[in-house]
Amino acid sequence: MSLFTDIPSDPIAAFDGWLQEAAGHEPNDPNAMSLATVAANGMPNVRMVLLKGHDARGFVFYTNLESQKGDELAVNAKAALCFHWKSLQRQVRVQGPISPVADDEADAYFKSRGRESRIGAWASQQSRPYGTRAELEAAYAEFDATYPDDNIPRPPHWSGRRITPLRIEFWQDGAHRLHDRLVFKRASSDSAWQTERLYP
Questions:
Q1: How far apart are CA 87 and CA 122, in angstroms?
Q2: In the structure, what pLDDT confidence band is assigned to residue 127 with cuts at 50, 70 and 90?
Q3: Which tens digits make up the pLDDT trace of 136-194?
Q4: How far apart are CA 32 and CA 47, in angstroms?
Q5: 47, 167, 177, 197: which is the annotated catalytic residue?
Q6: pTM (predicted TM-score)
Q7: E strands of the chain, at which residues?
Q8: For the chain, what are the domain ranges?
């Protein structure tokens, strides 16, 4: 079965269709994606994060900016994403530069999170070592007391990052390992998309 009967003109719309299908098939977190970054010493790093928005501007996730990924993106503002939906035997890979989301966009998303998650964003010094679990729980209790109601401001060290795609590859499993691979690529966010099929 071919990846696409007709090559889509808009890879973001094509991705949206695949994500919607994944939402109906994946048992957990169809918006989960691996995020690859590069440290200052040139060592690559990868971890799972959640996609929290996507449109023509790109793919958005949120993080503690003082975390390891935050530090790496501050040094090298480029990243790669990989979505893998085992239930559909599909994969999407994305590459591009990273930029901050607007403060009002980050504020709106932060406000939409559960109260416990918002307190946790204040309590966790993400990626830094600590001694005992009690230290983390004490920090949580401290901020829980500091913000006793639902009016919890977004921490200054917590925000979103958007990857503007310059390359998007759609992969569909095929019989006899004859997988389908369709790539969209462009030189910049203002350029037109070019497409090509790749051998598996």
A1: 36
A2: confident
A3: 999 899 999 999 999 999 999 999 999 999 999 999 988 787 888 999 999 999 999 99
A4: 10
A5: 177
A6: 0.92
A7: 32-38, 44-50, 53-55, 58-64, 78-85, 90-100, 158-163, 167-172, 180-185, 194-197
A8: 11-112+156-197
- Asked about 186 being catalytic, the answer comes back as no
Angle of CA points 163, 68, 121, to nearest 5° = 85
**Dist. CA 188–CA 165, nearest whole Å:** 9
The one-letter code for the residue type at 104 is: D
Of the candidates 68, 25, 21, 77, the one whose C-alpha atom is nearest the C-alpha of residue 49 is: 68
**CA proximity to 8, closest of 164, 168, 165:** 168
- Find where tokens 């994305």 sit: 94
Output the six-digit token pair for 53. 């928005």
Q: Which CATH class is domain 11-112+156-197?
A: mainly beta
Q: How far apart are CA 63 and CA 71, in angstroms?
A: 11
Looking at residue 129, what DSSP letter applies? -
Residue 68 token pair: 């390891």
C-alpha 60: how far from chain center: 6
